[in-house]
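Quick review question:
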């Protein structure tokens, strides 16, 4: 079955599919690298704030650098999540636009909640 599919493809299709997905692959790798360092920063910060209480955490978020790094962490996390879930949807349900839209809406909703929380804490 696979052999017949491979034989049906023209050389032009092979050239097109050869480069398809390279951008997504690189984006997934770069977001992974960024998340590694941002997660280390977030864990180190959380460990330092663990015993200091709510007011210290609020003061931490009010520092523009910390708020920016938190926002970057959430944006990159949701971008990485979207790409990973989208790859799974495309692998198992290649023609399902509804699932791809649901994935996008889910990631945007979680991102909006996270960034809204950072904004409210920064303005408090």
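Suggested answer, residue by residue:
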């Amino acid at each position: 079955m696979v052999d017949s599919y491979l034989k049906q493809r023209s050389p032009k299709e092979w050239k097109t599919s050869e480069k398809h997905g390279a951008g997504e692959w690189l984006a997934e790798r770069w977001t992974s690298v960024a998340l590694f360092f941002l997660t280390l920063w977030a864990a180190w910060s959380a460990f330092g704030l663990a015993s200091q209480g709510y007011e210290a955490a609020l003061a931490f978020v009010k520092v523009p650098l910390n708020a920016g790094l938190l926002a970057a962490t959430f944006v990159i996390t949701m971008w990485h999540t979207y790409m990973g879930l989208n790859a799974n949807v495309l692998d198992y349900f290649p023609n399902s636009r509804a699932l791809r839209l649901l994935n996008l809406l889910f990631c945007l909703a979680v991102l909006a909640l996270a960034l809204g929380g950072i904004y409210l804490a920064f303005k408090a």
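Why it works: DSSP finds six helices and no strands in the chain. The helical segments are 2-8, 11-19, 22-49, 54-62, 64-92, 97-123.
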